[in-house]
Write a structure and sequence with these properties.
Largest sheet: 5 strands, antiparallel
Distance between the termini: 34 Å
Number of strands: 10
Order of helices and strands: HHHHHHHHHHEHEEHEEEEEEE
Shape: globular
Radius of gyration: 20 Å
Strand order of the largest sheet: 2-3-1-4-10
Number of helices: 12
């Protein structure tokens, strides 16, 4: 798990520029690569801990992945980063208490992850990383069935090969599934990111190199191709994200109200906060931590709504409009601020900063 996550961080960092270049859906804000990389970096940091942490998780692959997923969820960036965190958290559940990955477990984990990812979005759309994850899950199930539940390393390798091939085919199909992608003649950036994540898993498990040739024929993904997102009209809205503890009822209310205010609503459970009713408080409801994401024209009503239901943490508001970049790497934003911070990847490539306002 650690080898996979570490490889994922490096690969997403190295591919962030091209992922950003073709990021035009749901908004052309050119940050899918950056968001995936930063979310993966949070996951890696969470499992790169001390010897005491290793004792706590032991050889439990589910425990390691769960810890990574929780950290990724708390620090998820954007649509793609949030869905990647959902994927990690959900995939960890069937692996709990297991000392190794197998083809049957891979099939169960990917199926759990794709169901959770689709349900996290208020309005899930085909032709995105959701479709890629769904295709991968179906391929894992088919491979496992054809091998009659064989839990050998060989069977796992066969399943992983099938998963990556299915993910690649799903990425190719995204161009025809979404009108904006078809018009721009590019594949979905989030879908490519998920393909890279799955190929990193295959590489880490089998000890083989990444299949770079998978990316050769993807439309818009060659180094010489232009940054498609820069040709798209700017979005004047903002992205609001936070973590908050809510009862299931309040969470449903928040999702419904956010759906009315904006779009790209994602709500996914982070964990339980021990708020269970006792004998004297029989009407109390269990409370759960939620990661909340929404695109809205104005952040104030959304922030006020969230605060009316609980005490959010890590509220961050980011401009969706494209910033103007300078030769020194700094950027201007619509609010008049200028961001001089550049985040470095695990390799020499640099990732531009984002305009984020903490509340």
């Amino acid at each position: 798990m650690k080898r996979w996550l570490g490889k994922t961080e490096v690969v997403l960092g190295n591919h962030s520029d091209r992922l950003n270049a073709i990021n035009i859906f749901p908004v052309a804000d050119g940050d899918t690569g950056t968001n995936l990389y930063l979310t993966a970096r949070a996951a890696v940091a969470a499992v790169a801990g001390t010897a005491s942490d290793a004792v706590e998780t032991g050889n439990d692959v589910g425990a390691v992945l769960s810890r990574a997923g929780q950290a990724a969820m708390e620090q998820a960036r954007g649509n793609s980063g949030t869905l990647f965190a959902v994927f990690l958290c959900a995939a960890a559940e069937p692996l709990s208490g297991k000392a190794r990955l197998s083809a049957p477990l891979l099939a169960t984990a990917l199926n759990r992850a794709q169901i959770r990812a689709w349900s996290a979005l208020s309005e899930p759309v085909s032709g995105t990383m959701l479709s890629v994850l769904e295709a991968a899950a179906h391929a894992a199930q088919a491979a496992d069935s054809s091998q009659n539940g064989d839990d050998s390393n060989h069977a796992l390798g066969v399943a992983l090969d099938a998963v990556v091939e299915a993910a690649f085919q799903a990425v190719v199909r995204t161009e025809d599934e979404l009108a904006p992608l078809q018009a721009a003649h590019v594949v979905d950036a989030g879908g490519v990111g998920m393909l890279l994540v799955l190929d990193c898993l295959r590489s880490a498990v089998l000890g083989e190199e990444l299949q770079d040739e998978l990316l050769d024929g993807l439309h818009g993904y060659q180094l010489q191709d232009p940054h498609i997102h820069q040709q798209m009209p700017a979005d004047d809205g903002v992205e609001v994200m936070c973590t908050i503890s809510l009862s299931p009822l309040d969470a449903a209310v928040l999702r419904q109200r956010l759906d009315e205010m904006g779009d790209s609503v994602i709500m996914s459970q982070v964990g339980t906060t021990g708020h269970h009713p006792d004998d004297d408080e029989s009407t109390a409801e269990a409370s759960y931590r939620w990661r909340v994401h929404v695109h809205v024209p104005d952040p104030a009503p959304a922030v006020a709504l969230i605060r009316s239901l609980g005490e959010p943490t890590e509220i961050a508001v980011s401009q969706l409009a494209l910033p103007r970049e300078y030769e020194d790497g700094s950027r201007d934003f619509e609010d008049g601020s200028r961001d001089f911070e550049a985040t470095q990847t695990a390799e020499p490539n640099s990732i531009p900063g984002q305009s984020r306002h903490e509340y």
